[in-house]
Design goal:
about 260 residues; mainly alpha; globular
Length: about 260
């Protein structure tokens, strides 16, 4: 097994992109009305990934750590905002909670993976750190989004029960703990579902990329396992953190529930 790979050109990219015509034809035939969204999605995929490739090539070429950190910070900011945009029931301070939860969990887990597990050389840390952080951020934002939405739904739907418990002398945690548990459980469902079928239903993206690049299949599998465990840890920490932060915002220190803070 060698580390050579087949380089792709823009002509091959155009040929692959032309396959989207099939999706467009299906949309037209069934009158789904998705032609414009498919076209926009195709264009955005090409533009965004080419821009990312150019930026990463430049960052790796410079070898300057602060450019890599700046890029990772932007990725984290975008992920935090994206997580909030998917939430229907919001509250004041949700964006800050999302940024804190996703930043702390994703960066901590990525650092452990990069320096403790993979042990990337210092002169190559950006080449490992940026892709790893991107994968952890993507899955963590999904968990955070689902978790926060479930937290708001649980507390709003069980308002009478929560307020009754508080009136009977329960603490804010005793009244809210079931909602927090449901939020964290919901946030972890996508990651757990992926782990259950990993390597059986499909070959994961990172492993596929390494196989195409000529990496030994066992090494590719080991890398994919490490990444999956990092993703699961990031999603767990992020969902738990944002749920606890949300719980503290929706209950006062005097053990009063404030449902009026929930919007949507």
């Amino acid at each position: 097994m060698h580390a050579d790979y087949i380089a792709l050109g823009y002509g091959q990219l155009a040929l692959a992109a032309s396959l989207m015509v099939i999706s467009g034809a299906i949309s037209l035939g069934l009158r789904l009305g998705l032609e414009r969204r498919l076209a926009v999605g195709t264009a955005r995929t090409i533009v965004q990934l080419l821009l990312l490739g150019l930026v990463l090539r430049w960052v790796f070429a410079t070898g300057l750590w602060y450019f890599a950190v700046a890029l990772m910070a932007v990725m984290t900011l975008v992920a935090g905002v994206a997580a909030v945009r998917r939430v229907e029931r919001r509250y004041a301070g949700l964006l800050l909670d999302s940024l804190l939860a996703i930043g702390a969990s994703a960066w901590c887990v990525t650092a452990i993976g990069m320096f403790g597990v993979i042990r990337a050389p210092m002169d190559q840390w950006a080449q490992y750190g940026i892709p790893l952080l991107g994968m952890v951020l993507h899955n963590t934002l999904t968990g955070i989004s689902l978790g926060v939405d479930r937290l708001g739904s649980e507390l709003a739907g069980r308002r009478d029960e929560v307020e009754t418990l508080l009136a009977l002398g329960a603490t804010r945690w005793e009244a809210a703990q079931d909602a927090v548990r449901q939020a964290v459980r919901t946030g972890l469902i996508p990651t757990l579902n992926t782990m259950m079928v990993l390597g059986i239903v499909s070959i994961p993206g990172m492993m596929t990329g390494q196989l195409l690049a000529g990496i030994d299949p066992i090494q590719a599998a080991l890398y994919q396992m490490v990444v999956m465990f990092l993703i699961a840890a990031g999603a767990s920490l992020g969902t738990m953190a944002v749920s606890l932060l949300g719980y503290r915002r929706l209950f006062t220190p005097n053990h009063q529930f404030q449902p009026g803070r929930l919007k949507g």
